[in-house]
């Protein structure tokens, strides 16, 4: 599929660069890590629900790197394709055509991480 990244490779590369930033920007990366933990912890919403929301935002913001990481986590959390597709539908509803294009990226990521 032209223009759609290989998500396993993409997330691996971004993770490598983020590890490099931990060496030069430890305070920033520690704070970002704490933000991620706080933003996805179990509470009134489950971790899976919070990750689904994050994926919808990633699609609306057109962030392939974010799509990759959130879909990877969602697959680990046991998200079904039907659950993913419902979130994609909501993202498209809220973001229109551009979100439709990035929703296809999320489907590709789901396929990449589901094997």
UniProtKB/TrEMBL annotation:
EC number: 4.1.1.44
Domain of life: Bacteria
Transmembrane segments: none
Domain Carboxymuconolactone decarboxylase-like, first and last residues per copy: 26-108
Entry keyword set: Lyase
GO molecular function (one): 4-carboxymuconolactone decarboxylase activity
Enzyme category, top tier: lyase
PANTHER family the record matches: ALKYL HYDROPEROXIDE REDUCTASE AHPD, BLR3452 PROTEIN
Name assigned to this protein: Putative carboxymuconolactone decarboxylase family protein
């Amino acid at each position: 599929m032209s223009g759609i990244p290989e998500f396993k490779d993409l997330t691996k590369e971004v993770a490598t660069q983020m590890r490099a930033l931990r060496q030069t920007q430890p305070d920033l990366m520690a704070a970002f890590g704490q933000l991620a933990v706080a933003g996805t912890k179990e509470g009134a919403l489950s971790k899976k629900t919070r990750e689904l929301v994050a994926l919808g935002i990633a699609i609306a913001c057109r962030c392939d790197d974010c799509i990759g990481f959130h879909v990877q986590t969602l697959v680990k959390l046991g998200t079904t394709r039907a659950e993913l597709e419902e979130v994609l539908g909501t993202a498209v509803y809220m973001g229109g055509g551009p979100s439709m294009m990035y929703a296809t990226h999320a489907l590709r990521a789901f396929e990449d991480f589901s094997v």
